[in-house]
Structure formats: structure tokens, C-alpha cells
Predict the structure.
Amino acid sequence: MTRKQRRLYFVLLGMLALGAAVALVLTAISDSLVYFYSPTDIVSQRIPEGRRMRVGGLVEADSVKKDGKTVTFKVTDITNALNVTYAGILPDLFREGQGVVVEGRMEKDGLFHAAEVLAKHDENYMPKEVADALKKSGQWNDGKKK
Amino acid sequence: MIAEIGHFALVLALCVALVQAVVPLMGANRGWASWMAVAGPASSLQFLFIAVAFGALTNAYVTSDFSVMNVAQNSHTEKPMLYKVAGVWGNHEGSLLLWITILALFGFAVTLFGRNLPPGLKSRALSVQAMISVGFLAFILLTSNPFARLEPPPMDGNGLNPMLQDPGLAFHPPMLYLGYVGFSMAFSFAIAALLEGRVDAAWARWVRPWTLAAWIFLTGGIILGSWWAYYTLGWGGWWYWDPVENASFMPWLAGTALLHSAVVVEKRDALKSWTILLAIVAFGFSLLGTFLVRSGVLTSVHAFATDPARGVFVLLLLCLAVGGSFTLYAMRAPAMKMGGLFSPISREGALLLNNVLMATGAATVLLGTLYPLIADALNLGKVSVGPPFFNAVFLPLMAPMVVVMAVGPMMAWKRGDLAGVLGRLKFAAAIALGGAMLVWFLQGGSAGPWWTGIGFALALWLGLGTLLDLAERIRLFQAPGEALGRAARLPRSSWGMVLAHLGVAVFIVGLTASSAWTTERIQSQKIGETVTVGGFGITLTGVHEVPGPNYTASRASFDISKDGSVIDVMQPEKRTYRMPPRPTTTAAIRSGLLGDLYVVIGDADPKGGYVTRLYFNPCIPWLWAGGALLVIGGLISLGDRRHRIGAPAQAATRRVAA
């Protein structure tokens, strides 16, 4: 095998792998991207029911209600609030007034059914999306940032 | 006072690193031996100073010196001693200090073990190593001084995030950093080789053990991290394709590829510029990982102590290091002569295929990890890329690689006999196929996911293929009497390869079974109520308050019964720490060969029960066993005579001296 042939082999192999990767990425990305919205986005835009998405904001004070394994609470960006229902154990750092990201779907009952509730390991830490959402609604207090 | 000594030692280390970055490099370019000789003592001195600084910070933590701001913010007198020591790196500043300490340790190791290195290569590599040091020392001193004082000192500290108060903190970050930073060795040697314009088998022999050592630590660190997340986060999962996880996985992929391509450089003098590129990429990924983890630009469940402003500095270092080395690579790599020729059907060919797939896999993980940043920058909306993307893209790329993994080791170098190898593997193929059908039948056909059969077939194929390869190497079937002796004489690197590949097979079993057949029950359970999960009856018998060293726990007791008789008691806890006042969850796990029973206790329900989360996670221990096999394989391979750095030459000089 000459050098030229080998180079051709390298190039073909690389192209093949890259081609496969591109094909896989293109088929996967449209279905698996999860968009992030603020509660205001959800209220003001028509968001399709049944699509998986993330919503971030603060857990509204006095909104957490537990009934058996089901928990309902409101996620707010101060301007608007979204009713969320979740079945399961909330993360340890889930607290009223703290930042939270919920992932799930809007259902016909008008509630956001969360499949996952993400609160952070670190309580000083505000998810970037939540900070941006709060900034957008003009409620961000810069003094909170270190 | 001791804190000031630590600070001062860091400044001195920076000065030494500056000298080490410039003088030996110039000496190597001009051929001045005395200038080159500066590299060794400088790296020892640099390590000494940084070790002093690290010792000073550790001292501040152990003695709870709250006049040091870092200690006041992250420690507490009540904290157990283990977490006082491990707490040194449980925060931004301290973890960077650990990073730089390990970097200096590796530089020192070159000086210690590298007496037989060609002086030009050694001095250039140590200079490159020092340049990285300069960057990170400047970062620490300018933005993240761990020795900053607090006036007046508080009575007590803020305490360590309770999530981190786990023995995992003592092992996971140092191991991970030993892996990340260990790739700096391959990087420095790669840059030195580019500067010299020469890459040969001797170079590869030097780089392999360092890369292998880094890879062992990184593998161990990732597995430990997954295990820690598994038992501490309380959702029963161990891998989430989270940005922080990906940040450690990308260097692992590049490092694994590098490990394999360096073999080709050493044995066959081929794939040189590709190997150099991988060395640069592996360390580039390590720096990227440091940036992603430290800056918090991506939302992660594992993000601790992040600071976007200081993250920019790491980004700058990353751009300098990667940009500079790629430029150098573009200038110098074309001049590198290609060595041994080989046919695509050969062991080199198989290793190359493995490399291409690994690299492509790493590229897709990179794309998925950074896509949210790209989309945000291009105003495409805020998105997150989660497990569905990675599972759909990465796993299909790895499947053919696993197929090749069984074939490659059985092929000859240079020109292999594919038909012959496949012929020898036909039993493995038959059993893999049979196994896949059995699994399909056992899970009730399409009642389970469609890919379980593929997963088990791949694991069986790889496991049996690897064992068959071992059997052939020791001629188990031809001459069974001599097989044991042959096994003992087999090079350790071959044993390492066999164990590591078996580890991958075992891991695939755990991965497939745990992703496909996990059962989860969430309910409000009253005292005395029984729930059945995975064939076990789980009865909540009571919840009691139990005091801990710096927390109080509400500990639940569950009776575990099988076929009507109680076989075990499991006690998960929900702890509330005093400082900082925060709850954590401690799951109770009962491990078995077939799977884990995983029990989490939640809050009390107003109607008189407790919310409980009960899982049966099949084959989870196989994941840890697979990871352990990878690490053990790596360690055994590291013990190979040919990997012992400069061993033959040193033994020769000793004999002469004697």
C-alpha cells in the first residue's frame, strides 16, 4: 500500500465517521433539544402542549402544597407565575424563594407537569437561565450576586 | 503568619516557573547545556514552594484559622477532621491550588524519573510545563488568592456545603485532577516534540506511561464521581450527560484514543502527527473541563463554587494554550515523516478505526455540551441538550467500536487476516447472538426496550472475544499443560489490555441492564405499609431522630422481605446540618450481583405517611466492577517493564556501577 493510498484510506475513514456523526446529530437534535422558557414566555406565547421544555424562576413563597406524593407549587419570575405539579421527592435544596428549574410538559389541565425538578447543590448558585429570566422581567437584584 | 508564608511561597513559585519557562527552552534552542540543566532544579523548587503553599492552606483548615477568608467561608469548627482536610479543595480557590500542586508534582516527577531523557526533550517539556504553571499561578494570585485575610476574624466559619461532606470528597476531586492534569505531561512532551521536529518510538515510550497514569486516575475519578452521585443525589441514576460530567468524559475519550495511538507510534512508527494532535486535544479538553466546571456558564447539577467572572481567565488560558499549540502544530506537523506503512486490515488499522470513532464520539459530546452556549450566542433560544441527544448520537458511534475491539487485538501488525480472525470468533458471534435472543425472550419481547439485545450481544462478543484472544496467546487449547506458565510470562501490558477490555464488556452489561429495566415506585407510605419492588417487600417500620457529629438525621427503618421472611433492614436518612443549615438525603443501598435495592426517605406527608422513593436498579454493581477492571488493567499495564520509565537503561548503568 502506497502513502497515497493510505492517505486516501485515512480521509475516507474520517469522512465516513464524520458523515455518520452528522447524520446522527441531525436526526437527534430536533427531537431532543429542550427549550428553556420563563413563566412570562409561557403566559404570553402560545406554547404547544405536550412538548418537553424547561421553565426556570423562583419558587413562589407559600405556594408549595403537598398531598401524598404529589407536590404543587408556583414558579415565578415576579411578573408571572406558572402552576407546576410534581410527583416525587423534591431535591434537598428546593426551598420557597429559591431559584429552580423544572423540566416537563404543559398538559391540557393547564398545569405544568414536571418530570424533573432541578435545584442546585450550592445555594449561592443561581442557574444562568433563571438569572437571565429574572433580568428580563426587570426583577434582578444585582446585590445578590457575589 | 503561616497563611502569609503560603502566599509568599506561591509568589516565589511563580518566579521560579517564569525562569523555568524561559531559560531551559532557550538553552535547548541554542544548545547551551548549562541553561538546559536549569529545568530539573527549577521544577523541584517550584514543586517545593507550591507544596509549602498547599501545606499552609491545609494547616489553616485543620486549625480552623478563620482569619483566612477562604477557611471562614468554607469550614466550621464542628466539621469532622476528614472534611476539614478534604474541604481544602471543596471550594474554588482551594481546588485551583490542588490543580497547580498536582501540575507541579508531575513536573517534579519528570525530574525525578527522567534522568535518561534526552536533555533537549526534557528541558523543552519542562519549559512547556512551566508555562502552564505560570498561567495558573497568575490566575490564583490575581483572582483567587486562597490566603486572603478577613479582618476581624469571625467566631466560626460558614461551614462546608453538606452535599460535599462525604468521603467521596476526599478521593474524587484529587483523582479527577490527577487525571486532568496528568494529560499535561503528554501535552508538554507533544509540544516539545513539535519544537524539536522529531517524534520517534523513544518519544512514544516516554509518553505512554504518563498518559496511562493520567488515564488510570481519570477513569477512577469518573467512576468514583458516578458512584458518589449515585448514592448521594437520591434519584437512582449515575450518569446524566450533564455538562460537568461531559467535561470529564471528553478528556477521557481523547486520552483513551491517545493511549491506543501511542502504541502504534511506539511499535510501528506510524500515526505520529495524529498522536501529537490527540495529546494536544486531550489536555485542551482538560482545560475546557476546568473552565466549564469553574465558570458555571452551563447549568449543571454538579456545579459547586462557580464564578463566571473568574471563569473568563481560564477561558483566556484555554485559548492561549490551545490556539498556540494548534498554530505550532499546523506549522510543524507536515514536516513530520510518516513511518511504517500498513494495510487497513491490520492491528494498526483497527486501532486507527477505534481512534477515529473515539474522536468522533468526543466531537459529538463536545457539540452537545457547548450547543446551549452556541444557541444562546446566536439567539436561537435557550436550550438544554440532555440524555436523549447523547444516547441517540454517541452510543451508535460506540457500538461499531466495541465490535472492532474484539477483532483488533487478534489481528497481526502491518497486515492482518480478517477472514481468519472472524473464523476464530464465530463461536463468540454465535453465543452473542444466542444471548441477545435469550435476553429478548426474558424481557418479554417488545415489552422492554429494543436495544437491550444489542447491548448484551456487544458485551458477550467483546467479553468472549477478549477471553478467546487471551486463550490463544497462552495457547490454552493447543498446549493446556503449558498454559499457566505462558500466562505468567505474558507481558503485563497484554494482561492490562485483556482486563481493561473485559472491564468494558462488564460495564456494557451494567449500562444496558440499568438503563433498560430500572423499576421505580414513588408513594406516600404509612408506618407498617409494604410496597413490592423488584421482588422485594419493603415495609416502613419507623422513623427516628438520630444525632450526628454536625447534623441531626431523621432515620427511617425499612424491613426488606423476600418470600415472606425478613432478610435485611435498610435505613436511609434525611439529614439536616447545623452549619450551614441545610438538608441532605442519604439513600440506603443494598447491592447484589443482580442489582441494587435503593431506598430514599422523603418528607412527612400531612396525612400521616412519608413520601418514599424505592428503586430496583438491575446490574448497577457491574458498572463499578467494569470501572474497577479498567483501573486494574491500567495499573497492571503500568507495571510492565517496557513502561517503567527509562528502566532498561537505568538498570544497565546500575550494573556498570556495581
